Amino acid sequence: MRIVATTPFDGQKPGTSGLRKKVKVFAQPHYLENFVQAVFDTLGPVPAGAVLVVGGDGRYHNRTAIQTILKMAAAHGFSRALVGQGGILSTPAASCIIRKYQAFGGLILSASHNPGGPEEDFGIKYNAGNGGPAPEALTDAVYARTRSLTEYRLVDAPDVDLDTLGETQVDGLTVQVIDPVADYADLMESLFDFAAIRSLIAGGFRLRFDAMHAVTGPYAREILEKRLGAPAGTVINGMPLEDFGGGHPDPNLVYAEELVAEMFGANAPDFGAASDGDGDRNMVLGRNFFVTPSDSLAVLAANATLCPAYARGIAGVARSMPTSGAADRVAARLGVPCFETPTGWKFFGNLLDAGKVTLCGEESFGTGSDHVREKDGLWAVLMWLNVLASRKDSVEAIVRHHWAEYGRNYYSRHDYEGVDSDAANGLMAHLRAAAPGLAGTVLRGYTVALCDDFAYTDPVDGSVSTAQGIRVLFTDGSRVVFRLSGTGTSGATLRLYVERYEADATRHDQPTQEALADLIALADDVAGIVARTGRDAPTVIT
Ligand code: G16
């Protein structure tokens, strides 16, 4: 074992989902090592036989980081490391493997939907033994440890062959290179009616899945093309590349342009979906039809009993605060609780572990269930396919029927990416200061019922999270929400979330931006977005 002297780096505070920085930052001597040592120090000595799961989304620097982590895991006393072949593990697959093999925890290497390559982003996060992202108390402790670190430990050993299945010894640590897909694909097959989906596809139902040259390619090919019989070519951009082919692996209407063009073009397939860099996000499209993530959660909750895994009903639903209230209406109808948490999948972990909820979702293209402790892109795709196979209706018809039954929550998110940090912080500070005085005022015809900075008390462990986003709630149930992203790596990203409920089914056909126009204008009145950021339009609208 070698002990290396080091000094702390500034800014190793995990964001919404782990530590994300430019590759150049991570590639500095000691940078990754410091963070990993801080995680290990925070965890303390591991029990005999402890297993660590290691893998990532295949982006640039993934393999280098894995070699370092394995040498440090050996020095920390782990007995076994399970590593995905080629260094590949999607985030939900890592969660599945941690749970299935009762690992102590896992280190997942990903910057999710952020671009990859030498000039782009890298990231790392620790997931606990439940398979879920480390809770805030742990990430705060890790950050504190990074501030006082003076040394890290690793063993001197040759690099491990990550491409060949099998075991290698690294100074007391058994490194087992595993098939990254099989366990996850088996889990999916146990949850859904694969026979029904197979016959839907065999009957001529056409689907397209865009893996965006990120981690889900091998998973989607195995599940959709091999196990479910979709024709070869159903999965596009299926080869994981270190730079995601130069693309931005974020499954939204702007970045998944190839899929969007096909789904909104002539002779479009019946169903289209995309996933992100590490496979936890999903976007679902019908022919000429976009399903908002908030609606997707609501529709899946309303139809859950059509899927074998959820046939006996769901215990409850959870959504992040900025996610629309569409799922709340389904939960109310089902007579199950609906929890509103801060942004970040880590906040769902306790609710899932305690059996309080079965389904969770976020507006940021995240949907999942208690089958793992991460959001899960392919899971959402399969649940939709199961519902489609059972309902024998189109995506659009299912969503429209849902709106007719529950009303429609018009919803949109406007992102202002790469905004000057001081300007973004100034905008939020201005809103915080203005918040207490807004209640009762009338803005463009909307009366403010409440304006606050969202805080959350975890109903399971009582932990409190404050300053999770400014929300302006109106008396008619509409709202605008402002928060700064916790996943970016340069400047700040301001997110504006806008929602309006429309019960009248004859008014469910307005274009979303039109339906929300007054609220969008009002948001600028309140926050001064244009004046403060210098941007006259958002970078991305979803
Ligand atoms: C992460 C978290 C999600 C969160 C999303 C958006 O997603 O895991 O729970 O909703 O970030 O965060 P922000 O608005 O702070 O950028 P991912 O897919 O990046 O891991």
TrEMBL record:
Residues 12-152, 183-285, 294-406 form the Alpha-D-phosphohexomutase alpha/beta/alpha domain. Its EC number is 5.4.2.2. It catalyses: alpha-D-glucose 1-phosphate = alpha-D-glucose 6-phosphate. GO terms for molecular function: magnesium ion binding; phosphoglucomutase activity. SUPFAM superfamilies: Phosphoglucomutase, C-terminal domain, Phosphoglucomutase, first 3 domains. Pfam families: PGM1_C_vert_fung (PF24947), PGM_PMM_I (PF02878), PGM_PMM_II (PF02879), PGM_PMM_III (PF02880). GO terms for biological process: carbohydrate metabolic process. InterPro entries: A-D-PHexomutase_a/b/a-I, A-D-PHexomutase_a/b/a-I/II/III, A-D-PHexomutase_a/b/a-II, A-D-PHexomutase_a/b/a-III, A-D-PHexomutase_C_sf, A-D-PHexomutase_CS, Alpha-D-phosphohexomutase_SF, PGM. Keywords: Isomerase, Magnesium, Metal-binding, Phosphoprotein. GO terms for cellular component: cytosol. Its cofactor is Mg(2+). Belongs to the phosphohexose mutase family. This is phosphoglucomutase (alpha-D-glucose-1,6-bisphosphate-dependent). The lineage of its organism: Bacteria, Pseudomonadati, Pseudomonadota, Alphaproteobacteria, Rhodospirillales.
